[in-house]
Amino acid sequence: MPHHRCYHSLPEREGQNYLIRSDISDLHLAFAIVQKFTQNATGKRIAEIEGLLKNATRSTSTTLLTEANINTELLQAALTMKQALGQIGEIVHALGILLALPSLLQENEVVEHLSLAAGNTGRLFDLETNQRVAEFKFNQWQGGAESIRQNQLFKDFYYLVEHCTTKEKYLYTTGTKHPLRFFQGRRALSSIMSNNKKLREAFSSRHGEKYTTIHQYYADDKTLVHLETIDTILPIFLREALSEE
After folding, report:
1. What is the pTM of this model?
2. Which of 8, 33, 150, 160 could share a disulfide with 77, CB 3.0–4.6 Å?
3. 97-111 burial by CB neighbour count: b if 16+ within 10 A, else e?
């Protein structure tokens, strides 16, 4: 059983206000407009337009854009799609946690708090029961330079490690190969925390200059957190990962 560390000054998770402003009919219209423009081959279409605009001048560019049906309506449609698709990650996160619960919960384990929308409720963790605290990461790791995903993973691991509780601590990821490779690597902690002032200050206040690389910190604290794959509970994430390889 992991030992436990107490740290009483953990900040609350920063909430974000996600709002889809377009109704479903707007989204359907936006999709139709963008699809008509891309013709289901975005790269090819962009290359065609690049060639079309070669040697264009101020006087000819307007005509060329009009002939190619490139206008503010198309831009608005693209913006509508971008805004709507920006919510998909939040939806996957929420559904993943909810569908995992029946398999995760043990006999006599009771949900005390859920945070399904990346911190909107002000809770520290995605899940807290009478027996555990847990964070979930449903990212599909590609195995390359994934610094943003690594930064987020470290933040969750750190707050789990430093949280003062006698409950078990879990970090669920889509597979453990890439997360473990990151945790056991030699990436500098200064790089990992470079864009998160609050985390950087909390870490420095707690540990000073004791650790310089991720593998040093992980080696000391890996027994505090159960790093487990969510794929065995929700195989759909495994199938999705394999389809992208």
Report:
1. 0.73
2. 33
3. beebeeebeeeeeee
DSSP for 135-149, written as a single string: EEE-----SS--HHH
Rounded Cα gap, residues 101 and 111, in angstroms: 9
Report yes or no: 229 and 173 within 8 Å, Cβ to Cβ.
yes
Distance CA 131, CA 134 (A): 10
> What stretches of the chain adopt beta strand conformation (E)?
111-114, 127-129, 132-137, 168-173, 226-229
Instruction: Report residue 83 CA to chain centroid gap.
Output: 16
Q: Rounded CA gap, 134 and 114, in Å?
A: 10
User: Would you say 57 and 156 are in contact if contact means Cβ atoms under 8 Å apart?
Assistant: no
Q: Which backbone phi and psi does 14 adopt, to 5 degrees?
A: -75, 120
Q: What is the pLDDT of residues 11-48, one digit of tens each?
A: 545 443 333 344 445 888 888 988 888 887 878 888 88
Bridge-based pairing state of the strands 168-173 and 226-229: parallel
Q: Which two tokens stand for residue 203?
A: 């870490």
Cβ atoms of 78 and 34 closer than 8 Å: yes
Tokens 């929700």, located at residue: 234
What would the 3-class secondary structure string for 35-72 be? HHHHCCCHHHHHHHHHHHCCCCCHHHHHHHHHHCCCCH
Distance CA 25, CA 193 (A): 42
Instruction: Give the pLDDT confidence of 87-120 residue by residue, as tens digits.
Output: 778 888 888 899 999 999 999 999 999 988 754 4
What value does the mean pLDDT take over residues 156-166? 96
Beta carbons of 215 and 185 less than 8 angstroms apart: yes
